[in-house]
Amino acid sequence: MLISVASAFIVSRLIFYLTALFATTFIPAVSPNGPAADLIEVSWQWDGFWYSNIITEGYSWNPDTHSNVAFFPLFPMLVRLLADAFGGADIYIVVVMLNHVLFLWALTAVWLYAEGKAGPDAAGRTVLLLSLFPTAFFFSAGYSESVFLLMCATSLALLHRRRFFGAGVAGLLASLARPAGVLLIVPYAIEVWRDRAGAKRPTGWLRKVAPAVLIPMGIGLYALYLGTRFSDPLVFSKAQQAWGREMTFPLLALGRATVAVVAPQSHALPFFMNIVNVAASIGALALAAALWKADASGAAFVTLAVLVYLTYPVGPGSAAWDPWQGNSIQSMARYVSTLFPMFLPIARWAWKPQRMAVVAGVFVTLQVMLAALFMRGHYVF
């Protein structure tokens, strides 16, 4: 385990920082430099600035414009606590170091999950594929991807080992990091049902079922805070409207984006990112279907998460709205990077070195390209 996890972690760091050196040397920035040195600043683009605002200024809500209440609190809370613990350390450096540690732990949890389903060799390929995925650079950015991945992987790994209380606690933290964490309650229910024969007494059954109530408590705690602070516990959802995201039927959103792939239009960055996001969405759903026999709970989590993310595409409220062109399912490639069970079918298929080399080559090429653009302020979502 240690060799596989450490190798995947080191490879991911090398890709990120070698790409950063290239990007900061040869690619002009399209936005002003951040407040820190180049190799730190590259991690702080786009949503990273919203997190830094929460860490330094706290939460605010304005229904008429973008508001930081759309971003869940676990990640900024951890950064603030660590910065204070180290005597008011620079938050930009704290975030970078924290995400290194969180991602290393997350890879460990993913390895344990995959090892329990397919053995150590497939587990090693799983963590490597996750680290090489085209949008894996977000695990090194000032985003909540690493902590969300850690909590989700920990919850599923514990579920498969029948440690239900720990899985519930990890689920609570996952839903405190991102609302999709609440979906862990579905794999929890599946695993409890599969283990029903082991509970011969009502008290045993209760000990398995009761921790499930912890999972939605992450969202509940954040909603309670928002209700106390802004008199509306649902402002985190309402804030999405300012970004032009509106609820729709998920397969309709995916269908529109798929049609836009073949529609005649300029080959600009939004067009390319639409291809990436469509491929990521369809690929994740296909891999979830392939995973179903080996791990129904993991497959359910991936499927539901993709569909929930597709439920909130860019809609008519956005100035960029065009249902048949552009990139209405923005960020899907980033979202699916945390859906770690989907990498297991690829890892099992890529048991031959030639297959693994092909997949790794495609992943790394795309990651370097997207990461370089992201680091210089381009909108690669």
Which properties best describe this structure?
single chain, 381 residues, mainly alpha, 18 helices, globular
For the biggest sheet, the summary is: none
**E-strand count:** 0
The total of helices stands at 18
Pattern of helices and strands:
HHHHHHHHHHHHHHHHHH
Q: What is the rounded Rg?
A: 20 Å
Shape: globular
How many separate structural domains? 1
Rounded to the nearest angstrom, the distance between the terminal CA atoms is: 33 Å
Low-confidence stretches: none
Helix content: 55-70%
Beta-strand content estimate:
under 5%
Backbone structural class: mainly alpha
Overall mean pLDDT stands at: 88
Describe the overall structure.
The protein has 381 residues and is mainly α. It has one domain (2-375). Helix content is 64%, strand content 0%. It has 18 helices and no strands. It has helices at 2-26, 38-41, 47-57, 74-85, 91-118, 120-132, 145-160, 164-177, 185-194, 202-209, 217-230, 235-238, 250-262, 269-291, 296-310, 332-336, 343-349, 353-375. α1 (2-26) packs across α5. It is globular and about 65 Å long. The mean pLDDT is 88.
Question: How is the secondary structure organized here?
Answer:
Elements: H1 2-26, H2 38-41, H3 47-57, H4 74-85, H5 91-118, H6 120-132, H7 145-160, H8 164-177, H9 185-194, H10 202-209, H11 217-230, H12 235-238, H13 250-262, H14 269-291, H15 296-310, H16 332-336, H17 343-349, H18 353-375
Helix pairs in contact: 1-5, 1-6, 1-18, 3-4, 4-5, 5-6, 5-7, 6-17, 7-8, 8-11, 9-15, 13-14, 13-15, 14-15, 14-17
